[in-house]
């Protein structure tokens, strides 16, 4: 089997969560050396050891909303491999759901700090090193279908993910001249821990209006991410691909 990535270094944020775990597994399967990062160190160790060729990979604690933490992860990666990452999959994300009248400033700010500010900080650090070295690279940011349509009780989350989509398109325009591609994926309702907070009656309604009549699997998102990071998508940048089972059709 031909390796898609040939040992290129890929950084995955949010690698302790369902989609991030799946992305890490698929990238390792496809021949990347994966730097799995998350704020949850226990989940990281489990995740790293479960990847194919576990000695090829590195597990590092990362708070994406803290610029010093971001810089530290890139330096530790360089110290370990001798090079910085050239591929980036940003799956770090949180929810703090509440209706507008009950949503407080802390809940709103926490979600934007992780989901949007974190996307900015990590991508900026990657780009800085890519441009210094003259290497090309690829980024995939994880947005959400909620970014396009909104969702009751998720004003903060929807706003953060809409920002990720806009940030992806803007930076794709900036970075294309340097051979750096930036795309994003908009998952629908995927079978992860995050989805378990959705009330059963709401989930039934969502499945009813989803043409494929089921939730997605994390691996189905991860396969698209791998494609977008690989040279198979070499003429794609600024694209935002929905993986929703047809929810928005």
UniProtKB/TrEMBL annotation:
<keyword id="KW-0443">Lipid metabolism</keyword>
<dbReference type="GO" id="GO:0004303">
    <property type="term" value="F:estradiol 17-beta-dehydrogenase [NAD(P)+] activity"/>
</dbReference>
<keyword id="KW-0275">Fatty acid biosynthesis</keyword>
<dbReference type="InterPro" id="IPR036291">
    <property type="entry name" value="NAD(P)-bd_dom_sf"/>
</dbReference>
<dbReference type="GO" id="GO:0047035">
    <property type="term" value="F:testosterone dehydrogenase (NAD+) activity"/>
</dbReference>
<dbReference type="Pfam" id="PF13561">
    <property type="entry name" value="adh_short_C2"/>
</dbReference>
<comment type="pathway">
    <text>Steroid biosynthesis; estrogen biosynthesis.</text>
</comment>
<keyword id="KW-0597">Phosphoprotein</keyword>
<dbReference type="InterPro" id="IPR002347">
    <property type="entry name" value="SDR_fam"/>
</dbReference>
<dbReference type="InterPro" id="IPR020904">
    <property type="entry name" value="Sc_DH/Rdtase_CS"/>
</dbReference>
<dbReference type="GO" id="GO:0005759">
    <property type="term" value="C:mitochondrial matrix"/>
</dbReference>
<comment type="subunit">
    <text>Heterotetramer with CBR4; contains two molecules of HSD17B8 and CBR4.</text>
</comment>
<keyword id="KW-0276">Fatty acid metabolism</keyword>
<dbReference type="GO" id="GO:0006633">
    <property type="term" value="P:fatty acid biosynthetic process"/>
</dbReference>
<keyword id="KW-0444">Lipid biosynthesis</keyword>
<dbReference type="GO" id="GO:0008210">
    <property type="term" value="P:estrogen metabolic process"/>
</dbReference>
<keyword id="KW-0560">Oxidoreductase</keyword>
<comment type="pathway">
    <text>Lipid metabolism.</text>
</comment>
<protein>
    <recommendedName>
        <fullName>(3R)-3-hydroxyacyl-CoA dehydrogenase</fullName>
        <ecNumber>1.1.1.239</ecNumber>
        <ecNumber>1.1.1.n12</ecNumber>
    </recommendedName>
</protein>
<comment type="similarity">
    <text>Belongs to the short-chain dehydrogenases/reductases (SDR) family.</text>
</comment>
<keyword id="KW-0520">NAD</keyword>
<keyword id="KW-0496">Mitochondrion</keyword>
<dbReference type="InterPro" id="IPR057326">
    <property type="entry name" value="KR_dom"/>
</dbReference>
<feature type="domain" description="Ketoreductase">
    <location>
        <begin position="8"/>
        <end position="192"/>
    </location>
</feature>
